[in-house]
């Protein structure tokens, strides 16, 4: 079945599915009605198999006129269309002894169900047990009974149309294999139904091949960051059409199994590195340009089919000759023992993320950070610099510059006593924006970072920022138009809702994430509020702007030491970046230009000796409407 309606009442940011909804539904807002709500939790898990999330059920629609019904209408797609409806109710108001709420439900004038007395803070679902059919238009009316003192309510509704799938089911061998892999590794993913069918709802992490004559086959499997342990499962070899396999960021042990070399269609294998010598051989986790792609494939051949160190070294040197001169000059080849010495046997961990583990090291009295996967050919003052690499038999690693002040996230923490000034925050934001601008417009083809967040913005000893962690980056082919399809990756809260829903990856995906970062820098608020509502920072700022309360948006620890016009402009930039409509978001070069103006405004006031405006400027605030 295909969902044609699935909505809640209050207009909030489109909800991320996982973490809220066990069935991975996307709940869309509807604002045609008045509503009542509660901050208390609505319970459904223990007694309601449909389990609409509490955050959905905590708001209920009511008619604007108490004596009027709530009405839902839709037109049939064709004369043979069939529909199923699920209506979810929960009382969100604590009723007094003299109050009551009950209502009946009709469909196209015929009694459907009732009376309904919605239970307090508990979900009650009314649904059609057989398909609704043979009508050109459907009208569902919910109206109060004669004895009810309160109008009817509706918290959420789902309406599904029946779809006859003409496409063949996934090849049974692939179904059995992927099901066994899920069981072997204990994967906690929402893998239900057919892996490849319908095509728009294939399982997360899978890509399938489709044609009109043969059943769909699994051709790509992404199990990165899935908590895999043990050895690489031999069941993978039964996915005989597999072309792409990503096992990075797991805890697999043992050598790369021989069966992978016998998979005729397998072209790209992504693995991981570790200080343990017996772990799967590391393979590059993301690419920049055709050189790195060809190097990745070559490394797989070494791991699976080459036998002598002399052949490996010769091939490595041959590929390095294909790099630009300036890139070669930045690199130093190190042995594995060199890396052990530099990092003091991997003694100090600087951080962990989508890129793997980063270790502290020292080369010739120079601080460095040692990564274990990413190999990039990009160079920019606002991107972390690759200063060396290690290729020693089955051990590979990269050496990056050391950033003395770590990442930005703890500097925005309320526990940090060293408060970043407004000028410093603007400079950090502009540095990060310039790094993204280079990836989008300075790399050929462009690169989309996909994991822009405060933890991936590193600060040097002068608090100048550089963008880090390209573990999730994607090359953006220039011949694919304005977007490309991609398995969703990123960090919750920073993730573009449009990308999450449609898998359409564009440069504007990074712009949204940067907008969230900029709001963090301005407000010092968490990306997701730790409350029952789980309010996103975008919605919190929107609410404050609607209340014309701009001063309480800014981090109170700044104590007014900023130019109010500079702050307004920065908030405006951020809110445009987090627009829910990608076409309304600016490009990163536009963001850089606007931030430069913000910084210039702030510096001009500092030059005049001002310490920030303290007068009430609310009458001059431009209210940003939600987009």
TrEMBL record:
<feature type="transmembrane region" description="Helical">
    <location>
        <begin position="279"/>
        <end position="304"/>
    </location>
</feature>
<dbReference type="InterPro" id="IPR000719">
    <property type="entry name" value="Prot_kinase_dom"/>
</dbReference>
<dbReference type="GO" id="GO:0004674">
    <property type="term" value="F:protein serine/threonine kinase activity"/>
</dbReference>
<dbReference type="InterPro" id="IPR032675">
    <property type="entry name" value="LRR_dom_sf"/>
</dbReference>
<feature type="domain" description="Protein kinase">
    <location>
        <begin position="344"/>
        <end position="599"/>
    </location>
</feature>
<keyword id="KW-0723">Serine/threonine-protein kinase</keyword>
<keyword id="KW-0677">Repeat</keyword>
<feature type="binding site">
    <location>
        <position position="371"/>
    </location>
    <ligand>
        <name>ATP</name>
    </ligand>
</feature>
<dbReference type="InterPro" id="IPR017441">
    <property type="entry name" value="Protein_kinase_ATP_BS"/>
</dbReference>
<keyword id="KW-0812">Transmembrane</keyword>
<keyword id="KW-0433">Leucine-rich repeat</keyword>
<dbReference type="InterPro" id="IPR024788">
    <property type="entry name" value="Malectin-like_Carb-bd_dom"/>
</dbReference>
<dbReference type="Pfam" id="PF00069">
    <property type="entry name" value="Pkinase"/>
</dbReference>
<keyword id="KW-0808">Transferase</keyword>
<protein>
    <recommendedName>
        <fullName>Protein kinase domain-containing protein</fullName>
    </recommendedName>
</protein>
<keyword id="KW-1133">Transmembrane helix</keyword>
<keyword id="KW-0418">Kinase</keyword>
<dbReference type="InterPro" id="IPR011009">
    <property type="entry name" value="Kinase-like_dom_sf"/>
</dbReference>
<keyword id="KW-0547">Nucleotide-binding</keyword>
<dbReference type="InterPro" id="IPR008271">
    <property type="entry name" value="Ser/Thr_kinase_AS"/>
</dbReference>
<keyword id="KW-0597">Phosphoprotein</keyword>
<keyword id="KW-0472">Membrane</keyword>
<keyword id="KW-0067">ATP-binding</keyword>
<feature type="signal peptide">
    <location>
        <begin position="1"/>
        <end position="19"/>
    </location>
</feature>
<dbReference type="GO" id="GO:0005524">
    <property type="term" value="F:ATP binding"/>
</dbReference>
<dbReference type="GO" id="GO:0016020">
    <property type="term" value="C:membrane"/>
</dbReference>
<keyword id="KW-0675">Receptor</keyword>
<keyword id="KW-0732">Signal</keyword>
<dbReference type="Pfam" id="PF12819">
    <property type="entry name" value="Malectin_like"/>
</dbReference>
